[in-house]
Amino acid sequence: MRKVTIPHLMEMKASGRPISMITAYSSWQAAMVQEAGAEVILVGDSLGMVEKGFASTVPVTMDTMIDACAAVSRGASSPFLVGDMPFMSYEVDRAQAVANAGRFIKEAGMDGVKLEGGVERADTVKAIVDAGIAVVGHIGLTPQSATLLGGFRVQGKDLAGAEKLLADGRALQDAGACSIVLECVPAPLAEILTEELSIPTVGIGAGKGCDGQVLVFHDILGLYGDFRPKFVKRYLDGGKVLTEALASYVSDVRERSFPEEGHSFDMDPSVIKELDR
Ligand code: KIV
Ligand code: NA
């Protein structure tokens, strides 16, 4: 597959071809997502939950993200690679936001960064874009500030919320964002925003009217416990399949049915005979 670029994604929107985005946090996951044909890999800060055992994305650090992004860029080269800026890496001041965004590009081989927030984050997005870095926006339910939103709930359901979401989308596009993730937004509202914007929208829990869809790797494959939000479609009970394989190994070891002869190394018996023992 040829390298996916921003013009490629814009062209997909223009011609009505849906964009597939999947998260990945390691080289092997990235290689699988690339092989599956997704146009965009997101190294999400969801890594904190699905890979690191945190209860939210809030504790994820820059160094953790850079490490994961570098691994992903070693595993996949064709998809457009987006690194998620972690909580408090872009809110404090603009210079720090630009410098941190730069690390994703320079140190970790990402093609762009993603950060959460709309109108209130537009100046930061513009500063990062002005530095020559592609930015993907993220509005609707923004998990890093879920406390302020009153928890993990659908956003933009009432008139004020819907107007805020449309304003957020416009502000990000005006600031130079190349795409926007819409998380937990009513489908009709996501469709209106998608029609209005010239840049592609990528939905998660935002209905089929978006220009693309994104899901977390572990959610698609059933690798993250029993946690299953309404918007997730699980394509495999991976946790069960993998655990069964591991259990077969454990039982083989206990029964001494592994290793078999073919898994072992032999040597000249005369050497054993001459051993002084
Ligand atoms: O961190 C993440 O995986 C995300 C996607 C769910 C959009 O932000
Ligand atoms: Na995220």
Automatic annotation (TrEMBL):
GO terms for molecular function: 3-methyl-2-oxobutanoate hydroxymethyltransferase activity; magnesium ion binding; methyltransferase activity. Mg(2+) binds at residues 45, 84, 116. It is found in: Cytoplasm. Keywords: Cytoplasm, Magnesium, Metal-binding, Methyltransferase, Pantothenate biosynthesis, Transferase. It catalyses: (6R)-5,10-methylene-5,6,7,8-tetrahydrofolate + 3-methyl-2-oxobutanoate + H2O = 2-dehydropantoate + (6S)-5,6,7,8-tetrahydrofolate. It comes from the Bacteria. The active site is at residue 183. InterPro entries: Pantoate_hydroxy_MeTrfase, Pyrv/PenolPyrv_kinase-like_dom, Pyrv_kinase-like_dom_sf. 3-methyl-2-oxobutanoate binds at residues 45-46, 84, 114. Pathway: Cofactor biosynthesis; (R)-pantothenate biosynthesis; (R)-pantoate from 3-methyl-2-oxobutanoate: step 1/2. GO terms for biological process: methylation; pantothenate biosynthetic process. GO terms for cellular component: cytoplasm. Its EC number is 2.1.2.11. Binds 1 Mg(2+) ion per subunit. Its main location: cytoplasm. Pfam families: Pantoate_transf. It is an enzyme of class 2 (transferase). Its cofactor is Mg(2+). PANTHER family: 3-METHYL-2-OXOBUTANOATE HYDROXYMETHYLTRANSFERASE (PTHR20881:SF0). Catalyzes the reversible reaction in which hydroxymethyl group from 5,10-methylenetetrahydrofolate is transferred onto alpha-ketoisovalerate to form ketopantoate. Homodecamer; pentamer of dimers. Belongs to the PanB family. This is 3-methyl-2-oxobutanoate hydroxymethyltransferase. It comes from Dethiosulfovibrio salsuginis.
